[in-house]
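Q: Is it fine to ask for two folds in a single conversation?
A: Yes, each is treated on its own. Send the first.
Q: Here.
A: Result:
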Amino acid sequence: MKRNKILAGIFCAAILSSCNQKEDIKSIVVKNTLDFEKTFETVELSKAFLNVTDLTTVGIRDAKDGTLQVTQTVDNDGDGTMDEILFQPKIAANSEKTFEIVTITEAEQPKAEELCYSRFVPERTDDYTWENNKVAFRVYGPVAQKMIEDGTPGGTLSSGVDAWLKKVEYPIINNWYKKNAIKPGAYHEASPEGRDNFHVGVSRGVGGIAVKADTTYYFSKNYTQWRTITTGPLRTSFHLEYANWGANGKLIKESKTISLDLGNNFSKFTTSIEGTDTIYAGLTLHEKDGKVTGSDDNGWVSYWQPHFETELATAIVAPKGTFLGYETYDTEQKDLSNAYAELKVTNNEVVYYAGFTWSESNQFKNSQEWEAYLDMFSKQINTPLEVVLNK
């Protein structure tokens, strides 16, 4: 009889312990207040928000079906400690979902392919290139600049942003540079994966910036330093530094952090800039045979154009209060014709999004579908998912 009482006591203690553990589990409620489903919006949760000391053992579990979410931890400042954890919940229109914050082992972490990727490319001068499952981009470094200034063939002098026209969802950066190392210029040729036939020159490409004084646009040279922040299944991000540059007597100091999330056609540019109250983010007009459109209400400018027997659209989107308007600059000077979004600088910082779509990638059927996507993307960045922590 005494042994049975002891066992019963142990059983009750186990139940109470289990109940207490369940009560200790934190949860978050993620709410979508817009009238369309959100699938590829990234939620960022900091250590301070979750009130935890170590994010590497944090898991995010759907409270309804118990599914562990794909997550990515990020060390933003490079000090060796993870600062935030990312995930992309699927939230229906005008609804909310609850997720539990649980402790898991590395083996329990859901695995996902690293589709968001970026790296420095020393084998092709000093490009910095990035991609996700939809788009790819690159910018140019100090060695490429010096080659031009020294008259050495093969350099590039530009702070514009190049678009790599991929039409597959898997990563192509390493494969294209490998092909280029074997046969220089190989990625300019058409392939089942796409091709790099987007000309940048000294244009702004897809989202390079300028400072306008009177009727003249001034801009920096190539980036001078780079730092990769993260690559992973949900986001790649990196930081670029630029040498100080002049704009009609103004000294401009510029650096930026660029990120690209899974499922998005737009890179996010967080630019730190001193010496100006506004910047102009540009889109090259190439042969000037396309159409510039825009929306002041929704904060975007777009350029839809014919492109080597295909079609290509580029765009810039900025939050309300940042987007001041758009304009077209048309000149006979080579590569200097751009569509510009005028953007407000607040506390020496400006955030905007720049990206593109290519008809060969079969993402959008026509310009109407693309512009509908721009309107939706604008709503998304202006009305992000709301997250509440239940302690």
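Q: Second one now.
A: Result:
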Amino acid sequence: MIVSHLELADFRNYESATVELEPGPNLFVGSNGQGKTNLVESINYLATLSSHRVSTDQALIRQGRDAAIIRARLEHAGRQVLVEVQLNRQGANRAQLNRAPAKPRDLPRQVRAVLFAPEDLALVRGEPSGRRRFLDQLLVQLTPRLSGVLADYDRVLRQRNSLLKSARAARVPSSGLSTLEVWDERLIDLGSEIIEARGRLVSALRPFVGEAYTAIAGRTQTAELASELSILGAQPDEGAEVSEQSVRTEIDRAEAVAAFTAAIERNRRAELERGLTLAGPHRDDLLLRLNGLPARGYASHGESWSFALALRLASAALLRAESPTGDPVLILDDVFAELDETRRGRLADAVAGYEQVLITAAVESDVPPALAAHTVRIRAGRIVSPEETT
């Protein structure tokens, strides 16, 4: 799949922008703060319905405007699809597919993209929440219906936490909380489906991560993934040491239901004391290991950077292998400035076969010439014409 045409209106620092994109590599060049990342962020938004830099859509709308529009023409196997989303300050966002009204959640079914940015270093060094978000966004791209499952789980979790907090404030004993059992059952049902799906995803990603890490780092180091599960006693959000009893690659639905049920019963007193649900996919972690050691805390800066990049390249490889819409659009945001010349060449080789690669750089010479065949120059929220660059 490729994005052949992109239009923006009042998105970030763009009053309006129109850019034609080519198959293969496309390089966006401009000084820092001119809007390079904003362009590629817009395409990634169509695929994930979220920004990799901010938690709400409000920051994506140009200052002083009520709405922003992202419109893109996608091409795959001779078929074209026009997708559009309107981000609103007031009211719900709106979407269109081929000019017909659609729901925003329908867009990721059409758009496949994988973005790597400097913020992704937090996938290795940051908190578990970032790694959970990484897995869930990829899950939704592979299986869009899981978006509803994840949303339902979050809703049930909020309701259950609210009940636990009310019970704590009123000092209600657990024997008097019959309503809690209803929420327990729903939490376990939805949560077990998420845990099983994440486990399958981790297993599918593992070989791709190992291959990508070796391709980037240029030496054989064992990069591995596993799931650290709170229903088996893990406490990653509280900084507890990794317990091997809680580490799994995959877990099936029936085993997850049994373990989740036992965890709910085991944690009942503590949950009532704290007013918080202490086990479930919202408390799990993706465990990253390099040569058998947890990458968080043991990997060097260069190793952490390579591991984060390997996670994104592995995601792209998995989408390529399983998606009926062809390759995902691979986006490399300000990546090459962080790499030495040797690793730049390795990365260029690793992405050379993708249908479309979008790259941003402040310094054109940082990017290998093979990836600069089609260059778009950005200045102050404008696409600069060739005449203006001469």
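Q: Anything structural to flag on that second result?
A: Two points. The chain has ten helices and 16 strands. The longest strand covers residues 2-11.
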